[in-house]
Amino acid sequence: MTATTRGLEGVVAAQSSICSIVDGVLSYAGINIDELAENAIFEEVVYLLWHGALPKRDQLEALQKQLGENAAIPQEVIDSIRSYPKGVHPMAALRTAVSSLALYDEEAQDMSPEANYRKSIRLMAQTPTIIAAFARIRQGLEPISPNPSYGLAKNFLYMLTGKEPSETAVKAFDVALILHADHEFNASTFAARVTVATLTDIYSGIVSAIGTLKGPLHGGANEQVAAMLTEVGSLDNVEPYIRKALDNKQKIMGFGHRVYKNGDPRAKWLRQMSKELTAQIGRPELYEMSVKIEEMVTSEKGLKPNVDFYSASVYISLGLETDLFTPIFAISRMSGWTAHIMEQYENNRLIRPRADYTGPVNQHYVPIDQR
Ligand SMILES: CC(=O)SCCNC(=O)CCNC(=O)[C@H](O)C(C)(C)COP(=O)(O)OP(=O)(O)OC[C@H]1O[C@@H](n2cnc3c(N)ncnc32)[C@H](O)[C@@H]1OP(=O)(O)O
Ligand SMILES: O=C([O-])CC(=O)C(=O)O
């Protein structure tokens, strides 16, 4: 048997033509993420991940129309969301609600590529609606129906508040969605691929992915960064807070990465957005604290911020509740998860590694009274 690689570090598990990370450069279907963040809208990126090429105008308009038309969720799912305990984490609510979508999807078990594409559209369109509905229901408010004429970013912000979001907020949110859309074999995407490689349905793959993204070592880190900023509280407290955390060998959330050792190319975009947006809302200290944390963690540990670090202050600036940060990541990553699931089905082989057994050997069954 081959040597064990802890955490599968550096292991190439399959071929993929969706997303690459080469020498620290992140590209979707060969297009540098910087160009996409600068020029694209999220729906173009969704199309790019699903089809491997940017959409022409009519193709983009068709996708936007399909996403708009499919954004409403079945009444049964809304009713079930009403029954969830109000205090549960929104990622747990999302995981359950996405699972229940499958119960009302007549195509849930149809494994044809066409049906899986249609389900990908529905999952992409309905995820923001589920999250916004849960966020309102837990506050005792009525959910707001999606507006089919709005883009995905605008619609989500609108469904949360019932108010037309500002252009700045929509643009910032859209860029954040682009930056989080895919990241080759990250843990949640890999979980989705392992799941569907048994030839189970797409919903099962997405439920695995949501459960995996939730963890604080992965997508859950953005919420933890927000908690850290609150605990730090002031610029003066950064030094003692981070010193104590490092002395106690605590992980500083939003730092480090399995693949990027010289910095995450998405972080600079979020850093700049954090600078601008925190100034706009009159809370520049959130950015200043973040920069000071970065300086300290980088100089003491050599660790750079990942995508989750500055996204926290960006989302705080957009007025979003902190426990919605990871579900927002899920909205974006739904595009990548579904792209990877469809790619897995196209060229499937069961994913089944081996374990290096380290337990006792040559043991015997001992009757219960003699143990
Ligand atoms: C979207 C995303 O998923 S991005 C990642 C989001 N997660 C986080 O931000 C959580 C904080 N970061 C981490 O826990 C890690 O850096 C991970 C999980 C992202 C990557 O983990 P790995 O590739 O396994 O790195 P690993 O844990 O081996 O780190 C190497 C060393 O750096 C340390 N280290 C890594 N990240 C951090 C951190 N954020 N704070 C402090 N020390 C850290 C480790 O403790 C380890 O030290 P050691 O060699 O003395 O034991
Ligand atoms: O790739 C990873 O390990 C985590 C990550 O940055 C992502 O999923 O965006």
From TrEMBL:
<dbReference type="GO" id="GO:0036440">
    <property type="term" value="F:citrate synthase activity"/>
</dbReference>
<dbReference type="InterPro" id="IPR036969">
    <property type="entry name" value="Citrate_synthase_sf"/>
</dbReference>
<dbReference type="InterPro" id="IPR011278">
    <property type="entry name" value="2-MeCitrate/Citrate_synth_II"/>
</dbReference>
<dbReference type="Pfam" id="PF00285">
    <property type="entry name" value="Citrate_synt"/>
</dbReference>
<feature type="active site">
    <location>
        <position position="257"/>
    </location>
</feature>
<keyword id="KW-0808">Transferase</keyword>
<dbReference type="InterPro" id="IPR019810">
    <property type="entry name" value="Citrate_synthase_AS"/>
</dbReference>
<dbReference type="InterPro" id="IPR016143">
    <property type="entry name" value="Citrate_synth-like_sm_a-sub"/>
</dbReference>
<dbReference type="GO" id="GO:0005829">
    <property type="term" value="C:cytosol"/>
</dbReference>
<keyword id="KW-0816">Tricarboxylic acid cycle</keyword>
<dbReference type="InterPro" id="IPR002020">
    <property type="entry name" value="Citrate_synthase"/>
</dbReference>
<dbReference type="InterPro" id="IPR024176">
    <property type="entry name" value="Citrate_synthase_bac-typ"/>
</dbReference>
<dbReference type="GO" id="GO:0006099">
    <property type="term" value="P:tricarboxylic acid cycle"/>
</dbReference>
<keyword id="KW-0012">Acyltransferase</keyword>
<comment type="pathway">
    <text>Carbohydrate metabolism; tricarboxylic acid cycle; isocitrate from oxaloacetate: step 1/2.</text>
</comment>
<dbReference type="InterPro" id="IPR016142">
    <property type="entry name" value="Citrate_synth-like_lrg_a-sub"/>
</dbReference>
<feature type="active site">
    <location>
        <position position="308"/>
    </location>
</feature>
<dbReference type="GO" id="GO:0005975">
    <property type="term" value="P:carbohydrate metabolic process"/>
</dbReference>
<comment type="similarity">
    <text>Belongs to the citrate synthase family.</text>
</comment>
<protein>
    <recommendedName>
        <fullName>Citrate synthase</fullName>
    </recommendedName>
</protein>
